[in-house]
Amino acid sequence: MKRLEDKIREEGQALSEHVLKVDAFLNHQVDPVLMQDIGKAFAERFADLDIDRIVTLESSGIAPAMMTALEMNVPFVFARKRKSLTLQDDLVEADVYSFTKQETNRISLSRRFVKPGERILVIDDFLANGEAALGLTELVESAGATVAGIGIVIEKSFQPGREKLLARGYRVESLARISKLEAGHISFVEAVR
Ligand code: 5GP
């Protein structure tokens, strides 16, 4: 997605060869017009699928997932990283190791909002080692639903997440695919579209 790649080039910061900071438009400040375009791009790429619901992970997945849900006219739900007093009953849970925070979070989702037999589109902000996306697929499948596709805003293609998801048979669509991070330069995998 050209607009996203331009934004990453202009406002993204390679903190190291492994970590990209995009808190100017995705992880802290959020660019709503870009999110709207992201929602349209995901809706287009997954238009052939009959999606019942979108599932994402708080907090940075919420903005792109919500805009995609609006475009596809389906509900969306975000998995929680922390237990809430009001969210205790009938949960499905999975452990996710966070690449950026270097800690394990138990993520959870209420069975009230993902029903058996539903076809789910999983959306997340980043794909690195695939832990977060795999945790989300585990939640969806524990609830008896099916993962129809996985939509990623920024994929770091030099890390193994994509291969892991493909090896398990999931369809993955990433709007920006980064092949290399260097100080002052960010390279992308394929020609923009
Ligand atoms: P994974 O679980 O695939 O290893 O990593 C995905 C999760 O880690 C994302 O949900 C995202 O929050 C975070 N993450 C991984 N790599 C990066 C990165 O380079 N930059 C930022 N901002 N977040 C990242």
UniProtKB/TrEMBL annotation:
It is an enzyme of class 2 (transferase). Its EC number is 2.4.2.22. GO terms for molecular function: xanthine phosphoribosyltransferase activity. Pathway: Purine metabolism; XMP biosynthesis via salvage pathway; XMP from xanthine: step 1/1. InterPro entries: PRTase-like, PRTase_dom, Pur/Pyrimidine_PRTase, Xanthine_PRibTrfase. Residues 34-157 form the Phosphoribosyltransferase domain. It catalyses: XMP + diphosphate = xanthine + 5-phospho-alpha-D-ribose 1-diphosphate. Its main location: cytoplasm. It is found in: Cytoplasm. Xanthine binds at L20, N27, K156. It holds the Pfam family Pribosyltran. 5-phospho-alpha-D-ribose 1-diphosphate binds at A128, N129, G130, E131, A132. Belongs to the purine/pyrimidine phosphoribosyltransferase family. Xpt subfamily. Converts the preformed base xanthine, a product of nucleic acid breakdown, to xanthosine 5'-monophosphate (XMP), so it can be reused for RNA or DNA synthesis. Homodimer. This is Xanthine phosphoribosyltransferase.
